[in-house]
Amino acid sequence: MTEKVGVLGKKPQRRTGVEHVVNAPLPTVYGTFQAVGYLDHDRGDEQVALVYGDIGTDEVLVRLHSECLTGDAFGSRHCECGDQLASALRAVVAEGAGVVVYLRGHEGRGIGLLGKLRAMALQAEGLDTVEANLALGFPVDARDYGVAAGILQDLGVRSVRLMSNNPRKREALVRHGVQVAEQVPLLIPPCENNITYLRTKRERLDHHLPHLDAVAHLS
Prior knowledge:
The protein is α/β, with parallel strands linked by helices. It has helices at about 70-75, 80-95, 105-110, 115-125, 130-135, 145-155, 165-175, 195-205, and strands spanning about 20-25, 30-40, 45-50, 60-65, 100-105, 160-165, 180-185. The chain is built from 8 helices and 7 strands. The radius of gyration is 19 Å and the shape is globular. The termini are far apart.
């Protein structure tokens, strides 16, 4: 089969960046959001931003939430992701305006669902989350936030108050042209199942988690 070419005999250029595809109202247990759907032409992922209220352009309360099926959908206690998502949605409603960008393709810090489950199996044998990724031949963190910056720019957002404990998210947004006016902690009380994971995030991934000092009794 021959590939289609343009009228001048050239191959059509492949689209890049994010394309704003659809807006739809999304009533949730937290409040009614606008679900704004995007297509990431660079990676092929479908993305969504949940927008609440009149967000304006500057110092918008924003959460960049990496997809976590086990935490977000199944309530896993291995991580704090599900609780962070719920807290972020509540926070933008309480604020009266804000955005939660739900980043698909970020499962397991970018290594995919099966990769994450394999890493979790190694963690059950004693490796920490960083060691497990490296043992499997994966990067420690393979996530890219360019699509998140593109979505925020499409929404007209110039600067954010970023709900995150991860300084690398702040650095990535600034690198992609979105200013971070403030980094807002999103601290979830740890439990016995995730305390080791959280301590590794603080000690090896530079996450700002000062509340862990108060739970030294957890193993």
